[in-house]
Amino acid sequence: MNSFLKNKDLIAGLMFVVIGVIFFIGAANYQLGTAARMGPGWFPRALGGIMTFLGILIAGVGLKNQAAWAATQGIGWTWKPVVILTGAVLLFGFALPTLGMVIAIILLTLISGFAAHDKNYKELAMITVIMCLFCAAVFVWGLKLQMKLFPWS
Amino acid sequence: MDLLSNLSLGFGVALTLTNIMYALVGCLLGTLIGVLPGIGPVATIAMLLPTTYALPPVSALIMLAGIYYGAQYGGSTTAILVNLPGESSSVVTALDGYQMARQGRAGAALGMAAIGSFIAGSFSTLLVAAFAPPLSEAALKFGPADYFSLMVLGLIAAVVLAHGSVLKAIAMIVLGIVMGLVGTDVNSGVARFSFDVPELTDGIGFVAVAMGIFGIGEILINLEKGEAREVFTAKVGRLLPSKQDFKDCAGSITRGTLLGSLLGILPGGGALLASFSAYSLEKKIAGPNAKPAFGKGNIRGVAAPESANNAGAQTSFIPLLTLGIPPNAVMALMVGAMTIHNIQPGPQVITANPQLFWGLIASMWVGNAMLVILNLPLIGMWVQLLKIPYRLLYPMILVFCCIGVYTVNNTTFDIWIIATFGVIGYIFAKLECEAAPLLLGFILGPMMEENLRRAMLLSRGSPDVFWTRPISATMLVLSVIMLVILALPAIRKKRDETFVDD
Question: Which residue of B has its CA nearest to A53?
Answer without folding.
Answer: B171
